[in-house]
Amino acid sequence: MNRSMQALESGWKCAVQTARLCCGVPDYDAYVKHLREHHPEREVPDYKAFFRERQEARYKGTGGRCC
Amino acid sequence: MQAVMPAPIPVRPSPAARILWVAIAIVGAFCLGVVALRRGEPINAIWLVAASISIFVIGYRYYGKFIEHSVLKLDPTRAPPSVLRNDGLDYVPTDKWVVFGHHFAAIAGAGPLVGPVLAAQMGYLPGTLWILFGVVFAGAVQDFMILGLSLRRDARSLGHMLREELGPVAGVVAMFGVLVLMMIVLAVLALVVVKALTHSPWGTFTVAATIPIALLMGVYLRWFRPGKILEVSIIGLVLLLASIAFGKTVADSATLAPLFDFDAKALAWLLIAYGFCASVLPVWLLLAPRDYLSTFLKIGTIALLALAIFLSAPTLQMPAVTKFIDGSGPVFQGGLFPFLFITIACGAVSGWHSIIASGTTPKLLANEGQARLVGYGGMLMEAFVAIMALIAASSLHPGVYFAMNSPAAIIGSTVQDAATTISQWGFVVTPDELLQTAKNIGESSILGRAGGAPTLAVGMAQLLHNIIPGGSMMAFWYHYAILFEALFILTTVDAGTRVGRFMIQEIAGLIHKPLQETKSWAGNLLATAICVGLWGYFLYQGAVDPLGGINTLWPLFGIANQMLAAIALMLATVVVVKLKRERYVLVPGIPAIWLIVCTMVAGWEKLSGPISFTAAAQKYAQAMQDGKLLAPAKTPAAMQQIVTNNYVDMALTGLFMLLIVAMLGFSLRALIRAWQTNHPTAHEEPYVALSSVAN
Q1: pTM of the prediction?
Q2: A36 interfacial to chain B (CB closer than 8 Å)
Q3: Are B102 and A52 an interchain contact pair (Cβ–Cβ within 8 Å)?
């Protein structure tokens, strides 16, 4: 029971991630993890700010940049 | 720094697996045999579906794997760009199924739905065979190989790779081709919408309703619930379905209907004005919310179409091969060779994909070993969408199909004339049947609705109606299908205009620096106006075209798209030689040569001969000299316009041919040089072991 719930949950997470990526919004958790590991000095944006930045970047013809 | 790579160890398939693959091969061969050989009696679409799936899985398992291991020599131990340049935003190692979904959503657009519908005029067999074999040996090869090359080059773009491998001039020439192709794509897609909405108050109302719905979604997403894409998309979907239902009331109302009743010219102007406004507004307000809605609706509708075909298992009413393979067809002119291969681009092989396969996708793949699933497999999925579109069109009554897709200049503008002409072709249909079809879908007429979308919509409406019967359901499904196509076409037009604007601003910045500033309103408006003007010209030309527009512009689009595919495949060919894997040169080489031959022959036929733009221009010019007016022109100025339009199309065709010849020259030069060199000269990034960088 517990295992099937877990599978369902990870399946849903995967579906949400795909749907967001199709709209040009990458995985927020992965970005936060990346910032914490590689750029601890930088402030972590909240999802709202992250979402707005990505929305603008999608239609610029160029992707956003890390550094 | 050349590290020693472990050679991939070939795994011997187990006896059970061998039996399975033999079984799939036998099923596939049998189904294909039924599709290809049964004559005189209608066959069921399921044969076609089964044959396609068998061929796709065999192509994926054997040819895809061969390319992966022998031609590209992909290596799962090698670190891909997503790992090497991980920035948490653009370069992120991502689950392979998530990348697959993203890649498929990016490559599947209106193309695979329109081309096969137009090609159905030759019967279902030629189109099916070209899609099946085209995708396995050309389309999927192109997508997969470009993805593979980009993976080895820091996920660089097609343009960048062309510059590196073929030289700087070749890169500039190809990118110029891409800009022109983009303008043609936007014009043709917008024309599909115009054709679907002409004198259709119901359709026009629902498409117009998407604008306030998107604005509402944009505001909601900006201030009320930021970033809640799923939530806002569900709200948008409910409002869209409500607008389809309310559209019937609008169409039936004597006061409201005229407000949404436009002819082709007026619609073209409205779309041009809309395209201009939409691409200068902030993205969050209109473009982004519509993009979300259209992306989800697209995937949902493709799934719905698949479900409808499987559940209703329609009989194909179109003959396997019609007499129009001789080139006398009404939907598009020109014989089976080369025009079938130009008409069905997306679905069999599409140059656009090489831009996506060297865009976001290579930045996301977590491992080279997953490239076959995404690159080769993603394209097979698109081919399956094309097969479904072909089935939807072929399951219609052929009389209805030809009535919808033939220009008025050939079949006349009344149902009586149309029924008579089409019956003479051997597809017996009565005026009543045509009227009844129009009535079933809630429209006043089905004549002259070329462009694929309406035909597919009627086909889909009938399939869905078979599953869920009900009095007015067919009209609902028809307008749903129209809305779904219009929605994602308009999103493409918005986004394309924006990208075109940035390209133009960059070029303009070379002349006058301040114009480059993307935040300056003057530069912004000017570049947008130029971009909209470019595609708007071709759109308006289509709206006043004597043959209804699609007939004229679709071949131009096909030639341009296949030109880009030929360029991508030429790049792949050159790189294979540069890697000193000459024995595999024919893998990308044969499809490249095939596409060069098809585009050059098609281009030549469009330049000189009976179906050329030149002949059309001369016909109208001659009539003007004799002081006559030819339909649909009603004034000498309109006649002059048609002459000019045809000369522009002619010049454009010539330009595309020159581009191909130039790129062929660049490729041959690089190829010969690489052949004579006895060591690899490709610009690959050095090998970095995944185990040394992965965390």
Answers
A1: 0.92
A2: no
A3: no
